[in-house]
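Z., the sequence and structure:
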Amino acid sequence: MSRELYFGVIGAGFMGKAHALALHSVAAVFGLETRPVVDMIATSSDDSAARAAKRLGFARHTGDWRELVRDPAIDVVTVCAPLPHREMVLEAIAHGKHVLCEKPLATNTGEAAAMQVAAEQAGVVCMVGFNYPKTPASQFARQLIDEGALGEIVSFRCAHVEDFLADPDLPMDWRMRRAEAGEAGALGDLGSHCIGMAHWLLGPIREVMAETRIVHAHRPAPDSGERVAVENDDQAELLVRFKSDVSGSLYVSRVGTGHKMGLSYEVTGTEGTIVFDQERLSEIQFYSRRDDARTQGFRRIPMGPSHPDYGDFCPAPGHGTGYNDTVTVEVRDLIAAITGEQPKLWPTFADAVYVHRVVDAALASVRDGRWTVVG
């Protein structure tokens, strides 16, 4: 029997639009019986909300996010606004709403843990927006790891490098201020994706050794143009040890000249290796030591209908999926968790708290100059 879930989205920027597109398409892509209703959008003013509703296909709009989370018709709240998220999320949970919140969940671990506790006590489904593991390629990579195609895993490397702040004359914004983004800059913003991917593929990280750097120490203030101090890191490097004793490294940068969506990873085992690059998100490179020695080498595997979730988007192999499709998969998983069709949801608020704790350990390692156990 079909049913409807009424969605309200806070924010109409990059991620607000991505979630609107996912809500419009998810039922058709996956043939869902439960259909999302693209009901209300909230932005910073009534005028901008009205424009966003018209552009993105929402039935209603408001210039006050509190009106959205308190509306009795709304079943699910998607938080796509910039940090801080705490007040929006806790208010939504207090009104019995299921929540999908974009990452990072909070500006610090205490806030994230409070959201997790509130969600568990309210009995609502809450998910955080680590969408990159939702690509067919990364889902397939995990299948290969779980099936033993790589043998015993011995190392993991991940990088998330972008150049959106490479220009030193770009003005200060919320990402570079501790009060809004937190103590961790690129480490929290981009590093959370690396940590989330590591967790998804290989399980929890046990301890870290880290260093961070502010590359462009001063930037123009947006109002006066006077150069002011950047308050968190532009890049970070982490050595990690997983609970499984696998060792690895993570590197993140928001000033990595030439890189646009440089999330990549390499998983090496005793029998094979997987290499993935998000800028080529519809393929993996796979090497197997078990292949005939005459043809042994890395081979490119383009995604197709035989790989997870690909066939729902396209019946032909090699045509590829895109970034917005990962959000559609994410929304599918959320709906399945709400309806009880998917008892094991990833990533939950508990998974987001884990990511925050790894970031905390990295910051402590920077301060103390030593390996630090994840709390």
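The chain has two domains: 3-132, 134-319+349-368. DSSP finds twelve helices and 17 strands in the chain.

Let me know what you think.
H.
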